[in-house]
Amino acid sequence: MLYSLNYSSPIGLIEVTGDENALKQLKFVDSFRGESYQHADILKDAEIWLDRYFSGKDPGTPPPMAPEGTSFQQKVWNELMKLKRGELISYGELARRVNSHARAVGQAVGRNPLPLFIPCHRIVAAHNLGGYTPGIELKKKLLLLESGGDNTLDFTV
DNA sequence: GGATCATATGCTT
DNA sequence: AAGCATATGATCC
Questions:
Q1: Which contacts of A39-45 are long-range, i.e. CB under 8 A and separated by 24 or more positions?
Q2: Which residues contact A130 (CB under 8 A, 6 or more apart)?
Q3: Is the CB of residue A92 inside 7 Å of nucleic acid strand B?
Q4: Nearest nucleotide by C1' from A123 CA?
Q5: A92 vs A24: CA distance, rounded Å
Q6: Residues A76, A120, A124, A142: which is the catalytic one?
Q7: Is A121 helix (H, G, I), strand (E, B) or coil?
Q8: Which of A28, A125, A127, A145 has the most beta carbons within 10 angstroms of its beta carbon?
């Protein structure tokens, strides 16, 4: 059985889905399709985590996750989850850590099914902001949020 | 600063 | 198995 949580964040509506044991997917939506089911404890944990995240605190350890992907993708995502809040990394640096190539890393990161929990917005390109599948504007807002709002993120993208 | 090529991985024939 | 698309990077000019 899959459960879903509808969450209204400062940067838009979010829909989290998961089963009894782990989160499976997070997506940004324009409007909620159905009702919010929070029968699973894990979705309550997810909601608490998101509350803390958007309030500017350290959200702590995220709920268990079960993203589906290849071993390489899991490797990349696992490396991402080691990043602390507000820490940035470039595609090239991340590629070096997993002994791969920047472009491959970008593709793996882009296929991440659990943004926010897996901080894919903390990845930036070497000379600009990089990309973000749900929308580059969203990525800027997230980085702004993490840095406290009065940062020096003046990317020209 | 723009154009071009090299490179790794995943998806689709 | 081969070709194509990528959320890049380094190297030309």
A1: A39/A3, A40/A3, A42/A3, A42/A18, A43/A3, A43/A4, A43/A5, A43/A16, A43/A18
A2: A91, A106, A123, A124, A139
A3: no
A4: C7
A5: 27
A6: A120
A7: helix
A8: A145
